What does this fold into?
Amino acid sequence: MMDDLLADFVAETREMLEASGGEIVAWEADPADKARLDTIFRFVHTVKGNCGFFDFPRLEKLSHAAEDALADCRAGRRDPDRALVSAVLAIIDRISEMTDSIEAGEDYPEGGDDELIAALQPSETVEIVGEPKQAPSAPTSADTAETAAPKAARNSGVQRSIRLPTELLDEVMKGVSDMVLARNDLARRLREAGVQPEIDGPFDRLSTILADVRTAITRMRMQRLEHLFGSLPRLVRDLSNELGKQVMVDFEGGEVELDREMVEMVRDPLTHIIRNALDHGLEGPGERIKAGKRELGLLKFAARQSGNQITLAITDDGRGIDTERLAAKAVAAGIYSQSEVDAMSERRKHYLIFEPGLSTADAVSAVSGRGVGMDVVRANIERVGGSIDVVSKPGEGTSFYLKLPLTLSIIAALTVGCGTQRYAIPRSYVEEIVFGSSEHVEFAEAGERQLVTFRGKRVPCLSLGEILGTETPDADSWQYKTLVLVRLASEEVFALAVDRVYDHEDVVVKPIAPAVMETGLYAGTTLLDDGRPMMLLDLPNIAQQHQLVNEMRSATRVVEEEQVEQRASHPIMLFTALDGRRRAVRLELVRRIDTVAREAIDIEGARAQAVIDGAIFTLAGHEYGSLPEEKCRLLRLSDGDCEIAYAVQEVLDAAAMDGDIIPSAADPAIEGVTLIGDKPVPVIDGHALFARHQSAKGSAHTMTCRLPAGSDWARTILEPLVEAAGYRVATDAAEEADVAIELAEEQATPAGPARRVIRLRPEPEAPDDTQDSIYRYDREALLAALKLARSGKTA
Amino acid sequence: MNQLLLLCRIAGRNAAIPAIRVQSVIEVGEITPLPGVPPFIRGLTALRSQALTVIDCSVALGFESQPDTPEQRAAVVDIDGHLYALLVDAAYDVGEARSDPIEVPGGFGAGWQAAARGMVETDTGPTLLIDIETLVSGPAAQAA
It folds into this structure.
């Protein structure tokens, strides 16, 4: 504490010295100038006052003497003459030197003060006042070499600093940004002009210098976190006195630097978290002793930098968040229903603290609980591109983790393309990038909501083009998109489908006009290398606009991230079966949802199969009614080994099965009946379904077909046809293929073993000697033969 | 009095913007469209390292957008720290106002009434003095 106050004192004195520097010079030129006299009087007066506060008797004595002399002048008791001016200036110089010593933590050499003070006296001898400039330096020059040397060393050791208006820094920063743009423009022109060693070398050097300058400018805006920490002990002390609690504060990572503006932005949220911790988190001394804790509560602040992010953890060792009370409040406030709250995990309940309108304090205290809650804290942190997280253990304490970008104006961004435009996404939100065409990615629709399943996670999917209104919804275009998996600060996850992902880059973000801000789509603007503007997307707001925030809170977070809970409440998928009745299937069984053409479904007697993407699946569900005329929706169910396509009329929604399943003996196809939204829904029995179709597993594997080796025609014309018929082309010579296609004109032995052989002839009319051959362009006959081979095997 | 005005043409009419508010008159180059914004905002354009919000003055007053001319002029203004490029049909000259802004009986008509501070006499005849703050908030704000 003392050190901080001292630093303030030094800084203030320096600032006054700098400010009054010009005044002193002007006063020297015209000692009768009253205004200048007043300024200097104020300076020595302030120094005197501050000295009394600290224990600096020498400084106090000097400033007091100067003040007295100047007071006489102001009162008209004395005329300021050159001698007086010189004497005062000598004292000011001495104050300045002593201030340097105080900052460096060293003692100023003894002696010389009295001479300076004596020089102020009006009737003293001319000799002293005649050489006032020598007076202050006298002690130094009179000193031995040993003391002079440390002084020089001290001066170089003191970090010189100046104060600059932030606007000036911004101006310089803007200039450097302009230079970077000009450099980029020049770089493009140079590239177009080809390699020119005599220019490229210096140009590269220029680029390096520019990059260094840019980094230096950025650092100019940085401030150590200890400036922020410095003000906290006092706040904690005042609050804990008010609340009758005893709190110890611990700091770690004060050397971490953060953008000045960012420091100011987190001050309020931090204050609120401290209030919250002292009021709700930390117990009173009595309660602490009862709980076997130290009487003294601990509040710990730890800052850490990782890359372009700062993590600031605020930890108390109090009683932890009372989730039951928090949940009860959420229900009472009508934010969640009792069943929703019951379904939540502890961790999920902790997040309730960020809900608007919740305060765990039963009575409104002076410290917290004024209605401004943690939701405001969270909003403020998110506004500056940060995030907040909370971890709490009952009886052990609570930690809040603030993640903050290093600066307000420069953020690490991912640039993505949509249509012809580029947009930037804060990289801190980006969890993963996957291609829609990847085989690990599956799309599905639930009602109007597009869902994407990726690595076992099913998340809502938004198309950037649709969000911006530049594209119309198109179910078929998803696989051509690139998906950016976005995890918001509040842990909500969704996929953003974009046309292209370009690059990672650090962008300088500028504010946008209010009318543009109103769209809620953009958070700022930045300039591309070629000088064109690019918008920064406001992802939290976009998620909010598309109701993803609440929806995911009740569904996704519970379903996806809390696996334990997922099993407890059994998510199911509701659909309308072909008979028009609602049924449900356990969501774990559903691998994906496909839409196929009616022709892809083949039903013959007891055999029912569907071809999806070149693979054959056993079909179920068709027994409930007739298939739609054109397109058919299929649920692809999997037991891990085997897949079954289940024909449905419509996929309705995913829901949580909270209640019990009432078993039904009458219908072996269903596991039982459960209540979804007060209506009975039969849940199909996955076990029975797979048991029934297990024997068909063999047929569900992809049939193989061997093509004539070394034939371009076979490879380019035949292969796609065979694959479209649901066969896989056999490539291993040793493998026994289900079918082999041979060309009649080639008498060569088959390339490998096969169960069945289809012979193709080059001429339309069958020659007499070969009856069982098919004309190579008789598509119908060829497909029929392939189909026969398939069903023949099943039969 | 004798306020300097940027004399221009908006939606086919003579209009004026206080010259003291105008930083420069530029030829608008490429405009980056902003999906989702109201139609009176054309998009963003870059002026050196600054992004300007391009306002289509005709649309902001509630009229149809004027056909684009090859040399589209815009007045650059700073409102509350944000830079705007006010797209006009044409920008002629800077001239002095010969009178204070006055109202005329019956008003200036739909669109103009809300955004006009009044009519001023200039060397090129009567001209409507446009309030740029109203302009950048768009037709919706005027209706409110």
Summary: The radius of gyration of chain A is 40 Å. Chain A has six domains: 2-157, 166-218, 224-405, 410-558, 570-698, 702-794. Confidence is low (pLDDT under 50) at residues 124-157, 360-371, 550-568, 695-700 of chain A.
